[in-house]
Amino acid sequence: MATITLSGNEIHTVGSLPEVGSQAPDFELLKDDLSTTTLADFKGSRVVFNIFPSIDTDVCATSVRNFNKRATDLENTKVVSVSRDTPFALKRFTKDEDTNNVMNLSDIRTGEFGESYGLTIVDGPFEGFHSRAVVVVDENGKVIYNQQVPEIGQEPDYLEALKSLL
């Protein structure tokens, strides 16, 4: 269980992020057309998972914009944002913000991603949402970087996440 804060108040997640060097857990997430995707669909590409509570909050939207801007020059790398938002909300954001370098995926159907990656919040006002985190995996699905952001209102460390790809 990870302890993080929301506006300075302690809250907790169901577990801890996958450890660096471990195999990333498999998942099934929804695309904006309601089809599904799994970790196997990314085999052969490096993946930066930008994970957050909701696209409709300022910091979450900012993280998608920042990763979108930085993703343009990454070789063999996909940037994937994951939240419990509906696929429709994620599609609207992509269209409104023109964030085409990022794939937005939804964990709304099962919550399996949040559970297996240890980031579903279990108490407080954001109970059931994902905590803010970044997990980077290599071409074979091995975790090469992780960051559990300690305060939900704080942005992730973009530079450190991207340095893991060098």
Automatic annotation (TrEMBL):
One Pfam family from the UniProt entry? Answer: Redoxin
Q: Which InterPro entries match?
A: Redoxin, Thioredoxin-like_sf, Thioredoxin_domain, TPX, Tpx_Peroxidase_subfamily
Is Nuclease among this UniProt entry's keywords? Answer: no
Listed Gene3D superfamilies: Glutaredoxin
CDD domains the UniProt entry points to: PRX_Atyp2cys
Q: Does the keyword Thylakoid apply?
A: no
For this UniProt entry, the molecular function terms from Gene Ontology, in alphabetical order, are: thioredoxin peroxidase activity
Q: Which residues form the Thioredoxin domain?
A: 18-166
What are the alphabetically sorted keywords of the record? Disulfide bond, Oxidoreductase, Peroxidase, Redox-active center
Q: What is this protein called?
A: Lipid hydroperoxide peroxidase
What is the source species?
Answer: Nonlabens agnitus
- Lineage per the UniProt record: Bacteria, Pseudomonadati, Bacteroidota, Flavobacteriia, Flavobacteriales
